[in-house]
Amino acid sequence: MKIGVFCSGGDAPGMNACIRAVVRRAISEGHEVVGINRGYQGLLDEDFYTTDAGSPLMTLRSVSGWSRFGGSLLRSSRSSEFRTDAGQQKAVKVLVKHGIDALVPIGGDGTFHGAVALAKHWDGPIVGCPGTIDNDLMGTDFTIGFSTAVQTAVEAVDKIRDTAESHERMFLVEVMGRHSGFIAVHTALAASAECVCIPETKTDIPAIVRDLQELKTRGKTSVMMIVAEGDEEGDAVKLNEELRAAGNPFSTRCVILGHLQRGGSPSPEDRILASSVGDFAVQAILEGQSGVMAGVIGGQTTLTRFEDTYAVHKPIPPELSSLIERLAN
Ligand code: F6P
Predict the structure, then answer these.
(1) Residue 10 Cα, ligand 1 centroid: separation in angstroms?
(2) What number does the ligand 1 atom closest to the CA of 261 have?
(3) DSSP string, 59-125
(4) pLDDT by residue (tens digit) across 64-87?
């Protein structure tokens, strides 16, 4: 069997460890692996990874040392052409032309929407791996890249706290998460932030200002507020303006961490998760599975239909939000 592997959507630390696992497991079982560069767009463009010797097939050595590298060594993209019916049919022609029998897409909900669309035109097995820093997929406790992104954000917030304390300021630190507050909540808890604003819960400006006034009265000199970029009240800059207008007693600054959170060498947790699901995805293909994502729930590898990974908004454990509030008071 010839298995195609690719990364799609926002890159996430650990994707390379996942590719390595796919390549190593597939080759050790006697199969071939084609690395598809630049996600679905690379598939349409017939842009394949070639070894130094010019072979289009990846080898055991192709992925030596890949686990420690951030980003995606097969690169990644968001393809508007592939979203069209014509694009999907063109992709099938490319798969047939190159004799690719099965696919392992590594990415988030957009990637899996793409896999479902492709499966309407192609009957080869597709088993995905959850690669996104957002941790917003059902069917796995954590997604590849989330742990590293939180670690990066916490390191940044710790540094910002130093200057916040020196100048007796409040900082609004914006973290990624277009539709999800997972990075924000985990960062807030780990970095002892006083407040967190996420799309899943109502951001009540007057109530936050009352809390800030209370903190000021009690002699608090620095405040950290972590804001998920997708908060329903707006981003960190907008929230800052609203808080000021409502009587925030603290002098403030905003920091947007942005794509810093997507880079860097993956944490051990991300490398382990990526290796487990990459290996398991190949096993699932060889066992005849298709249309599913390989994940890890409670330490057990598991398969979830692509549609079920994104049908429901993955809930933030409410006890985490209440813990942040309790400990900040
Ligand atoms: O989906 C992952 C993610 O990092 C989101 O948290 C963020 O909103 C988005 O990607 C940014 O995408 P881009 O790199 O295209 O700006």
Answers:
(1) 5
(2) 4
(3) -GGGGTTGGG--S-TT-----TTTTSHHHHHHHHHHHHHTT--EEEEEESHHHHHHHHHHHTT--S-
(4) 999 999 999 999 999 999 999 999
pLDDT score, position 328: 81
Q: Is 240 in the pocket of ligand 1 (CB under 6 A)?
A: no
Q: Within the chain, which residue ranges are assigned CATH 3.40.50.460?
A: 146-263
Q: Whose CA is nearest to atom 10 of ligand 1?
A: 10
pLDDT at 325: 84
What fold does the segment set 2-145+266-310 form as a domain? Rossmann fold (3.40.50)
Q: Of residues 11, 109, 134, 270, which has the active-site annotation?
A: 134
Any catalytic annotation for residue 134? yes
The token duo for 49 is 């990874």
For helices 146-167 and 182-190, angle between their N-to-C axes, nearest 10 degrees: 50
- 5 close to 57: Cβ distance less than 8 angstroms: no
Protein residue closest via CA to atom 12 of ligand 1 = 10
* Mean pLDDT (whole number) for 210-214: 96
In angstroms, how far is CA 124 from the centroid of its own chain? 26
Tally the C-alpha atoms within 13 A of residue 319's C-alpha that lie toward its C-beta: 0
Mean pLDDT, to the nearest integer, of 269-290?
98
Task: Please give the number of the atom of ligand 1 that sits closest to the Cα of 9.
Answer: 1
Q: Is the CB of 10 under 6 A from ligand 1?
A: yes
Q: Which atom of ligand 1 is nearest to the CA of 177?
A: 6
CATH topology for the 146-263 domain: Rossmann fold (3.40.50)
